[in-house]
Structures are given as C-alpha cells and as structure tokens.
Sequence to fold (468 residues):
Amino acid sequence: MSTPRTLREARSALAAGSTSVLALTRTALEQARSKAHLNIFLELFDESALGKAAEVDAKLASGTAGELAGAIVSLKDNLCYKGHKVSAASKILEGFTSPYSATVVERLLAADAVIIGRTNCDEFAMGSSNENSAYGAVLNPLDTSKVPGGSSGGAASSVAAGICNVALGSDTGGSIRQPASFCGVVGFKPTYGRVSRYGLIAFASSFDQVGPFAHTAEDALSVHKVIAGHDELDNTSSQRALGSGQTTAAPLKVAYYRECVEREGLDPEIKAHMLAQFARLKALGHSVEPIELPMLDHLVPTYYILATAEASSNLARFDGIRYGHRSKEAKGVDDTYRRSRTEGFGPEVKRRILLGTFVLSSGYYDAYYAQGMRVRRLIRENTLKAFDTYDLVMTPTCPSTAFGHGEISDPVTMYLQDIFTVQANLAGVPAVSLPTGTHSNGLPFGTQLMAKPFADERLLALAHELFV
Ligand code: GLN
Fold:
C-alpha cells in the first residue's frame, strides 16, 4: 500500500472502508523509513502521529472528523509543534523542544490532519538547494544526483516521494515554489498577512509566509483554507475574510513579463514550454498579453539587501543564553555570544548576518537599506498595477530544472535562482508553482501564476481549472 496521492483519493478510500487513518499513517512512516537515504526527515513523530490517527479514525466512525481527515502531512523544521523538537536545520537549536505550537499546526490538527514528522531544509530557510542544512543535503526523489531545491527541499520531497500527500513549508523568496518546481509538485505562497506566522521561526519577517505543497492545486486550496485567516497572535495577520474560491466561466486576462520569457539564461525548453502554454490558453478563449518588468534585474539585489537586514536582526536572539547551543569553552557574556554563534551557525547564515548587519550600519544604511526600501515600493507598485488589468501574471518558476549536488558553489549564482520568485515576496502577492512541464533531461519544471493580494483562493481554483 502507498499513501494516496490526493485528499480526494484518501477520503474515498476511507469512506469505502478500504483503509483507515491509522493504516495510512503506518504506511507513511514505513515509506519514510524505507526512503531514509533521501534524508527528507530530520525526525519522525511516530507516537503523536499514531495517537492522532487513532483519534481521527474514532471521529470518522462517529461522523465528526474534520476536513483534513486523511491528510498525511510533514512540517518544515522551522514550524513549532508543542512538545516536539524544532531546529531550523541549525546546530544552534540542536536539542530545542518547542513549548508551543504554531497557529498553522494548531489549525491542521484541529482539522484532523496527521503530522508525521519534521523535514530537512536549508539552515534558517536560507538557500535554494537544501545544501545549507546542518544535517546534510536532501536528495531529489526523482533523480538522487540532483538537489530538490530549497529551502523547503525536504517538504517538497516528502510529497514527491509519495510519503505525504501534503507538506507545509515557508516561502521568503521562493522557498516553496522553487523546490515544488524541481520536484514536480504544486507549491503555494499565500498573500503576505493571509497565513499566521506565529510559531514560524523568523527569517525575514516582512517576506515570510507559510504555505502548502500537494500533488494538486485543489489539495493546496483545501489546506490553505484550513491554515489561512486572521490570528490575533500575529499582528501582520489580515482581518479580511477568505475568498470563496469560485471561478467564473468568463475568459481570463492573462499577462506575462516579456523580460522573463526573453531572459538570457532561461532554459530554451522552459521558454518553449511557456510559449506553448500561452498558445494553449489562447486556444481556450483567454487573452494572453506581454507586459513590461523593467526592474527585473533589481529584484534579486533588493531582496538580498532587505531579507538579510531583517535576518540579522531576527537571528540576534540566538545568543547561547536563551536557547539552543551554548559553547562549552565560553567565559563571560561576550565570549558566550561570540563562541556560541560561531559554533552554532553555518557559513551561509553567517554570511547573511554579516551582510544584513553591514547594510543596516550607520554610514551604509541610506545607500543600501533605505534605498532597498524605496526600490521595494516601486516593485510593489509595478507588480500591483498589472492586476488593474489582468487576472493572472504567468512566469516560469525557475530558469532551469534541478541542478546537481555541488554544482553551484558561488553564492551570487545561487541567489539568481530566485530571479522569478522573489517578486511575489517583495510585493506581498500570492503565487503558485504548478508542475506543468517535463524537460528532455527527464526532470520536471513549474509554471508560476501570480494574482492580486488576497485573491489566493481564486488563484488556486483557477490553477486547478486551467492546468490540471
Ligand atoms: N532562496 C532564497 C534565499 O535563500 C529564498 C529562501 C526562502 O524563501 N526561505 O533567501
């Protein structure tokens, strides 16, 4: 037996009595163990998962089960789950047990999902390949010589490997959508403020959002509806009601950025696939038009100035005093900070803290951070303007398919992986990556759709209608 791919399949198997949530959970745990070489899970939560599964079976029998009964879920290792370890894949949080649960975790459990474990990721969600984890790289389940993408590489792989039908990740600059593209699954980043960040270990707080991975946009929508909505524990959480997710039969107005499709460095097969998608949508009666994104080359630098600035301040709390790793050698307060942080953080996290501290320091603040904030406003205005006219904006998710382990060692080349994904985070708009293409190298790649803020439910419903 294997984990049903979709929630619909899981629900019908449960309704037919051909399986139970306990059986599904046991299968998923076995699958995870038999695929341990992929290094997807940092820990499996056997006890709490099997306990929850038995509880959901009892609720199914009495007709009181929640809407995610049958969902087998993994949590990225930066989401807190009460009584469970969480480490952001960093040595600095080794051994730390969370005293509380993230709001998204509370909501998943309340809807009767079973959480089977925590997944590997880039340390503090910083990376595009999952190679920055303190616990080793994740192997792409579709081709183990390739990376699964990052930073939510374990989350994407847990779905792609058929272990889970749903995973939660976090997306600050593309960390849900890029691994979704590399692993051939759906990955969704909600509008900023749509999903509570309470209990998500912060990277860059004005960018971070929690979102789902699944095999279909329909399942991503089911999970989104459960985790989204106002939370008084996150003061950036929106009070707006969720959309209905209804679509209309009217023809859609779709745009694409000329600069993205024509960009040098975009894999020619991905470009050809985009053009074929435009033709297909037109043949369905929708309009597809080119629009301009003159600031394309400024997106990645702006993101890396602002996100590192926020990270340098967020990561100041890991000081060896309050939680996590404390150096055994340390003498005195300053020495404790210095040694604990030197020993606990990996090289990429150190690089980002240094860069972020630099752009915020007096003398450089105006030239970098303040300027980055101004450019961010222009990017947001330009991004939103498109939605005055268009329902959707379409881009490739990534310039290439999954690359090999160790293939990209230069940080700037790695950062350019995010060229098409950071815009949605800079502007705060919802964006989904859909597994629409297969390259002649055998690997999948995604198409990204963006919509206006708070059109999340409609975006996923349209994605399901147009691309499944
Ligand atoms: N790859 C980007 C980075 O390293 C995005 C990370 C993310 O979305 N968490 O910053």
About this structure: The CA atoms of residues 27 and 57 lie 15 Å apart. Residues 125-128, 151, 170-175, 203, 307, 418 surround glutamine (CB under 6 Å).
